Amino acid sequence: MVRVIAGTARGRKLKTLDSENTKPTLDRVKEAMFSMIMPYIQGEKVFDAFAGNGSLGIEALSRGADFCFFNDKAPACCRIVQENLDTTGFSQKAEVFCNDFIAAANTLANRGETVGLVLLDPPYRQGLIEKMLTAPALEKICRKNDDGTFPPKPATVVCEHSAEDVLKEAYGKFVRTKTRRYGTVCVSVYQFYGSESL
């Protein structure tokens, strides 16, 4: 059973897709992940790039995020995300894309959207985290560190990946600040230290 762990929708059960291509984040890993990124959630816009059933983005909304853009290339996943948003009452705080993750990021960039938190939980061992962290579209949608806020608050990218995957300390302007291992799963947090203006 997948459920919302904390916040306004705590305890709500979430539907999942019965498929070998989806892997809902375990509760203990999700709890650890959100404990790592709690300072970066409140009031933020979020991009859940590999949404699956929407569990991570919905958790962020439940814990105080203002809005979440969900994306998954599988139509069945997108339908379940929408059902789970309806169940948790977050439909008005969300938009669901059904596209390749780079295409979804480009759509947001072309609209002038920026986000403060990016959730990356792609299929393991396919190099998708590295592909996303090096995509120009991701830089375009990440809030810049010099946007006038004080103290400066860089955008945060949290990645769930296999412990077998070795990620770099930095990918361009994305710099790793934390990494934790939970059995066969790792959670790595990057912050975006972009300096150019939009």
Instruction: Tell me the β content.
Output: 15-25%
The ordered H/E elements are: EEHEHEHEHEHHEEEE
Low-pLDDT parts are: none
Oligomer: single chain
**Distinct helical segment count:** 6
Report helical residue fraction.
Answer: 25-40%
Number of strands: 10
Give a quick account of the main beta sheet: strands, pairing sense, barrel closure: 8 strands, mixed
Gross morphology? globular
Mind telling me the C-alpha Rg? 15 Å
CATH superfamily label = Vaccinia Virus protein VP39
How would you write the strand order of the largest sheet? 5-4-3-6-7-10-9-8
What is the CATH architecture term?
A: 3-Layer(aba) Sandwich
Total domains, how many?
Answer: 1
Mean pLDDT, rounded to whole units? 90
Predict the CATH topology. Answer: Rossmann fold
Which structural class do the helices and strands define? Answer: alpha/beta
What CATH first level would be assigned? Alpha Beta
